[in-house]
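Q: Here's a chain of 105 amino acids. Please give me its 3D structure as tokens.
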Amino acid sequence: MFVDLRTYTMVPGRLNAYLELYEREGLPIQQRHLGNLLGYFVTETGELNQVVHLWGYASAADRDARRSAMEKDPDWIAYRRKSAEAGNVQHQSNKLLRPTRFSPI
């Protein structure tokens, strides 16, 4: 399994607005395309106003295929436009993690 670790830093004061829009509109689309949500978190200490989410994939190629299909989905395109217009996200980063042979996942 490969894990896509994504960290989004929100504009201060916009975290709840992001989460409400995402849960209502973005999450159902991503679950339909990406499937394996491992976790969705908000930071309590350290750098605040962050959302960290982890998605599991069979391989890097599986990730690429699933994300490519999602990027073509008109529902996802509309959600991304709405999310961008809301101006909640200040910065995004992601890492594709490959497990070690002794990793439990």
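Q: Can you summarize the key feature?
A: The longest strand covers residues 2-10.
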